[in-house]
Specification:
- The structure is a homodimer of 886-residue chains.
- The first copy, chain A, is α/β, with parallel strands linked by helices.
- The longest helix of chain A is centred in the last third of the chain and has 25 residues, at 584-608.
- At the A-B interface, helix 24, helix 26, helix 28, helix 29 and helix 31 of A face helix 24, helix 26, helix 28, helix 29 and helix 31 of B.
């Protein structure tokens, strides 16, 4: 066997770049040590040691213990103290430190190295027996809890008993004698609970603590955190063993945490808290109210200047806003930790911009400093999660934004109240086109069934209203006008609040955080626009939404869904008349009435987007979506039958039911929809094409520049597109002749079925553009019905890491991505100038946008409120993968 | 410009191999001419001329008319007759002749060349004015109908008038004088109807006839025929212009058709019909009853011997059974046509075997002579399509076989009648697991809704019972116990017949053709087995079916679906109990009761297949398929509410409905099913694995050789298979230890989702075998729900040739096939000895089997009754693509 691996580093042996090996904390301590800051000496045990431990049935890798001892000798020599030395004992803190910040893992153990002997040494050294005993009892309590798994409560009971006996309220008021007795009782608690003596061997204490840190890598909280934050399970954690310094050594000592800039606003002022004569845990425990960091200036003027200077050094060194822990021991400043500071979106933007102005970072770096997903904070109202909240249900976060209002179970009633100026939340099992007028006036929509693509979700998103879907714990009794959830009964008129960005429902009114889009954001996005290669369009169905999208910087509309126009309340009867038509002339008549309405829709949208391309998708959903629900009809018919209803009425409803049934499908997602409607009912697409082209002609006559792109959905074979292209071109020709104007247009297709990807070369022969519909493409590639999967098994899949992410949130690069690449390759081979975009919801998600950039799409299209996110994410992708694009 | 293309061939200039250019008929005439048989001289206009005509806006290609005239001169010289010569006129027949036989195209025009002058010449030549005039009036009638589109009826009216006037019944009894007047009136009819004189110019007659043949390529009947028989639209047709010979020249003349062997049985005897003193059309018209071909021996002994000899020459020459047309003119035999004879499956097999014995063809050729799909005739009872039938409805041919019985709308009633010895057809909108006992006793099942994968279809196929699904014209009124279809009312108890192989429903009892599997078939399949590379397995779910499959030559079971075991009537309550369990222990209890039942199922199936592999698929369908229907419950609850039902009963049903709803899905096909159940309810798959392995252990102890293959369905990611493989292996280990036996087994997966194909390399790391589930793979690749597509848009797609075939019948090589190839490549790269098969319905369809052979599968698995078809098709594939396989 060769030499053992190096598992232990002195702080001075590491550096910032060794984060993977030493963890974030360890790398920070090493870096601070090496740039000459005052850091208590110590050592870091590597993540590799943790990985080896986990792979080796929880056994330390060979050589580890010896390496720790060897490095420890160096530290002891430097300080002139010795571990376990009763005269001059060395005490250490032991902390976990993973490569990425991970709350939920083992926290600090302070004062390790104390035992029945060394506690005396500490008392002598500090000339403070009370302090030494208090350190010891805290150490026993903390060590036994974290390392030996003794219930914390058992120690608290002892403490309470002594406090009662002494008739004092605070731990700090306990007498020396009490503390001495408490220490003895604590050791007895450990023996009773574990059958083991509390370890007096300081080396054993250390190794047990290291093992506990390693084990904490796989505790439930850590696993959950990694799952939620998509952190790989095989990184492992490092362990930092650092000499203790005591902020509680007297009034010339203290401890604090500080941010180099304000983490809420980004303002360039030190921000943090400080406590005189205290240890770090006192700040966290909140027993005493900390002072603001600036107050340190009065208390320790010299140290404060040194601290300010150190902060500057650290910010300049790391070229980013830092989150710093420090301690002052008898007037001497020690830096204990530094890391990149967590910050709000507003702060991230302001700090990045300021740093560019200060010459600290480049524009490119500034762009990479802001998490695109965080921008949501600036664009939607949110519930203030720091407030005390009573969550009563949770569903799918179907449309972001927060709302408060009185519960209403009925769209008509919602409309009445809403028009009367009241704020309502519409609560339904699911919504249908009949509920649209209720959704329009509601502050938000909450449904107990349905998924991210349910009617409620799609309509709410298109209106920019908060929506939560599939909140399954909610059981609605429409007749009694109440809903129950987890034993709580909410009546009509009761106030609830909801956050569509998180899926949470709360009882009563709760505090909100208002959106704060800023000038700074505008500046940042302007820089993003200069760098990104991907264009950004919006998915918008209405002129209002289109205008908003344009304000947000959309460079066109990538998806305008015409079915939402069909669902508008006053048009639905016409649409139903068209569907129920018994013959072609009845159908033509209904379509004839829809034509001017559609034409006006398109006119307004084209006008709002003057000078920019607008992709209009022809009718996509199956026709039964426009008809009443079969079950409702069935109940109604049964009721009429058993209550002597009029035979004529029964017959009419039965006839309607027959038609509904004839159109109903086992798997509507894979049914008679998309271009299949266009093929079987050519008159529907013909009407839509005519409406588009007549609107175009009208605008051209008015001198307006329009760039219409007609999109055929759900194509799986070139022949479909070829047929429908011919029909559409013929109508364009007719309109040009009738109107006496010329205009140009594109005809293309959604690529949203695996087969479309596989025969993309043949399809490209008939297409001017492709637009990936990654929602449906993911559904068919995985064989997942999104509406069914999300409420049922998908969460289990993500929880058990069978899938890293829901494929409906982040593009699945392995499967769906492979098909997309194939389609792009084949499509461009057949048609080199083919314009290719994406209009699935992935078009607004950073990771997916990065993939779209890498595979060479021309644009992404996303919902209006995600346009800024997409602009920034596209710029980041361009910065990270510059070589990938021409 | 170069020289004009050669568009016209004398018969002696062609040969058999020029079928594409000269059409089947033309190539046959050429070949017969060249091997020295007596064929009336003539010429063939090529298919290329037809194609050029169609591409050239229905204009003859340059040079065509001149070439016809030139070749015509040669023919005239040979006969010493001249076209249009009043003294010695040459008459010709003009017939279409495509490269593949195509009924529905233009039929023969006889006697072309007659006009007011030549008719006199014919009268003189034949010394029979009546004959000449009759030929002329027939010619006018035929030519005007076919070429000039004059309604046939108008001529019939004239004929009727003269027959009435003369008081005769038959055309043949019309006097010469009448015929002369009729000719004049016919010409007037043409003038009135078309504004044109009947053409007297014989050259013009000829060119008009040629054009009519070309045009008939695109008539509706021809287009329909090509669609049904999958004949490309761009082949074009040839035109044969042949000198007339007259079988109606007197009693030394005649005409006939004959097969060189019996086309029904294959027996080696001449088979056909013969009419003395008649023309071909008389045989077809059925005015006189033809004699059998053997009767010719008495009438024309010399000619008969010559004919028998000629038949032998032709069979030897073509090395296949021939279908021959001939005419005898004044004692001289003329061959008019020869082609490969259409034959029944039984005849095809017998003839092929006999020809091998006669040394005429090889075994390999014999194997290629039988259409595998035709074998269905030998394996299932069918309705005799030659009988006079009253079709009242048509649905999807969901399970082959024919049945007659009284209509019954209810499974309980069906069971009562069935057990009482009555034959019933169960007629339902759709069936559910509650109907199984009714299906068991029924002769056949007919449903008005649902597709080829509906409950009724799947269950009926597994039982080998006839089934028709989705017969949409049928409207059932359960209350009134009637169904109506196209205005016909069928009551409960009325007799209907059905053919599950064609999807036809008939009123009353109809004649059937019994299946006739023969020794000859056995011989042929034995040869097939020696040649094929693909193994053939069966999809069987019961021991009875497994035994049958083995008899049919199955080499294992490729798919045993365990859900059908769950659906058996006595088990369903246990399954429902398991699903409705409120906690894990209730669920375990129900599963505990299912375990021994499943174990016994597997025991029997393994035993029946001793020595052969058996692939058992773990539970696949979504759980709600085992529960009552939500609509039925809803109607029942509503009824109870409005009829003062017991509150307790209502509450219980509402609770059940709640559970049904909680489990119900928007798109069950893409929902919570397959291994997703195995992941979320591990105890279900654990029970099944235990049942399998306990059965294996039991059999091993009994000394029986079993080869179990456990199959995990609907895998889309390697992690799913990895998890479930671990669980299954652990159970196998447990059972081996508990039972004290060792056994081996394979664990593999269905490949039935696009993503599974895309990540097949990773999946293969955890799989011993892959089995392509091409039903679901086609559904997801196309985005087609089979149950929805088949009844709605798929027929339109096939009709308009957007798709050549339903992808559920023939594997779509462009899309699905591409994914399969990818999966095979990736799977074998990661795991070189991976066993790969197919168990979708394509495994029993010839074209798909050929593809499976080409891409290198190890086996195909198909429904039991298709095993012989698959064996033959696999042999044909091996003969056609020998180089493709190792």
């Amino acid at each position: 066997m060769g030499e053992a691996k190096k598992y232990v580093y002195l702080f001075e042996e590491g550096k910032a770049e060794m984060k993977d090996l030493l963890g974030g904390k360890g790398a920070g301590l090493a870096e601070m040590t090496n740039i000459g800051l005052s850091v208590p000496p110590g050592l870091t045990i590597t993540t590799e040691a943790c990985i080896a431990y986990n792979l080796n049935q929880k056994q330390f890798p060979p050589g580890l213990e010896q390496q720790i001892q060897e490095k420890f000798l160096v530290v002891q020599e430097r300080l002139g103290k010795k571990f376990g030395d009763p005269q001059n004992p060395l005490l250490v803190s032991v902390r976990s430190g993973a490569p990425v910040s991970m709350p939920g893992m083992m926290d600090t153990i302070l004062n390790l190295g104390l035992n029945d002997e060394t506690v005396k040494g500490l008392a002598q050294q500090t000339n403070n027996e009370r302090f030494a005993l208090d350190c010891y009892r805290r150490f026993i309590q903390m060590f036994s809890d974290v390392v030996m798994k003794v219930e914390r409560d058992k120690f608290e009971q002892v403490l309470e008993r002594y406090k009662t006996r002494q008739a004092v309220k605070l731990d700090a008021d306990l007498s020396v004698e009490s503390l001495r007795l408490i220490v003895e009782e604590f050791k007895q608690v450990v023996l009773n609970a574990t059958g083991q003596e509390f370890p007096q061997d300081t080396q054993k204490q250390l190794m047990m603590a290291v093992q506990a840190v390693f084990d904490s890598w796989d505790n439930d909280k850590a696993i959950l955190y990694r799952r939620i934050n998509r952190i790989p399970d095989d990184l492992g954690t490092a362990v930092n063993v650092r000499c203790m310094v005591f902020g509680n050594s007297g009034n010339d000592s203290g401890t604090g945490v500080a941010f180099t800039r304000n983490p809420s606003t980004g303002e360039k002022t030190l921000y943090g808290e400080f406590l005189v004569n205290a240890q770090g845990e006192d700040v966290v425990a909140g027993i005493r109210t900390p002072q603001t960091i600036s107050s340190m200036q009065q208390e320790f003027p010299g140290v404060f200047d040194q601290f300010v200077h150190t902060c500057k050094i650290l910010e300049n060194h790391y070229r980013d806003m830092q989150d710093i822990e420090f301690t002052v021991e008898k007037g001497k400043l020690y830096m204990l930790q530094t890391r990149s500071a967590k910050r709000t979106a507003a702060a991230a933007i302001k700090a990045a911009l300021d740093m560019v102005n200060e010459g600290l970072i480049t524009r490119e770096e500034a762009l990479l400093r802001v998490d695109p997903a965080q921008l949501n904070q600036l664009l939607h109202r949110q519930i203030d999660q720091t407030a005390s909240l009573k969550e009563i249900a949770r569903g799918l976060p179907a449309s972001p934004g927060a709302a408060t209002g009185q519960v209403c179970f009925n769209a008509d009633e919602a409309e009445r109240l809403g028009k009367g100026g009241q704020k309502v939340i519409l609560v339904r099992n699911e919504t249908t086109p009949d509920d649209i007028h209720g959704i329009v006036v509601a502050q938000g929509v909450l449904t107990s069934r349905g998924g991210m693509t349910s009617h409620a979700a799609v309509v709410a998103r298109s209106m920019g209203k908060p929506c939560i879907c599939g909140a399954e714990s909610i059981s609605i009794d429409y007749a009694a006008k109440v809903f129950t959830t987890g034993g709580i009964v909410i009546k009509e008129g009761d106030i609830i609040s909801m956050d569509g960005g998180t899926g949470q429902v709360f009882e009563g009114e709760v505090p909100m955080v208002e959106p704060g889009a800023s000038q700074e954001l505008g500046q940042l996005l302007q820089w993003a626009d200069e760098i990104r290669v991907l264009k950004v369009r919006a998915n918008s169905d209405t002129p209002e939404d289109a205008k908003k999208a344009r304000e947000f910087g959309a460079e066109g509309i990538g998806l305008c869904r015409t079915e939402h126009m069909f669902m508008a309340q006053e048009r639905l009867p016409l649409v139903q008349q068209m569907i129920l038509a018994e013959n072609e002339s009845d159908r033509e008549a209904a379509l004839g009435q829809l034509l001017p309405v559609q034409q006006n829709d398109f006119y307004e949208i084209f006008k709002a987007m003057e000078g920019l391309p607008v992709t209009i998708r022809l009718l996509d959903p199956p026709l039964h979506e426009f008809l009443p629900n079969a079950e409702d009809l069935l109940v109604e018919i049964t009721r009429l039958k058993y209550t002597q209803g009029a035979a004529q009425e029964i017959a009419a409803k039965e006839k309607l039911l027959y038609k509904v049934r004839a159109l109903s499908e086992f798997n509507p997602m894979l049914g008679h929809r998309g271009c299949r409607l266009g093929i079987t009912f050519p008159e529907i697409y013909a009407m839509q094409a005519r409406a588009i082209f007549q609107a175009v002609a009208q605008l051209v006559k008015e001198g307006c520049k329009v760039f219409p792109e007609v999109e055929i959905p759900l194509v799986m074979d070139p022949e479909e597109l070829s047929l429908l292209r011919q029909q559409t071109e013929a109508i364009a020709q007719e309109v040009m002749q009738e109107q006496g104007v010329q205009f140009s247009y594109l005809i293309g297709t959604m690529i949203e079925l695996p087969r479309a990807c596989l025969v993309a070369d043949k399809i490209a022969e008939h297409a001017d553009f492709f637009s990936f519909g990654t929602n449906d493409l993911s559904q068919t590639t995985f064989g997942f019905s999104r509406d069914d999967a999300e409420g049922k098994f998908l969460s289990v899949y993500v929880e058990r890491k069978i899938l890293q992410d829901s494929p409906f949130v982040v593009i699945d690069r392995d499967g769906v991505g492979q098909l997309m690449k194939l389609a792009i390759e084949k499509g461009r081979a057949a048609h080199p100038h083919l314009e290719i975009g994406i209009c699935g919801e992935h078009g607004g998600e950073s990771n997916s946008i990065e993939f779209c950039h890498q595979v060479g799409l021309n644009y992404v299209s996303c919902s209006t409120y995600r346009v800024p996110i997409a602009r920034l994410a596209a710029a980041q992708a361009a910065l990270r993968y510059p070589q990938k694009r021409a």
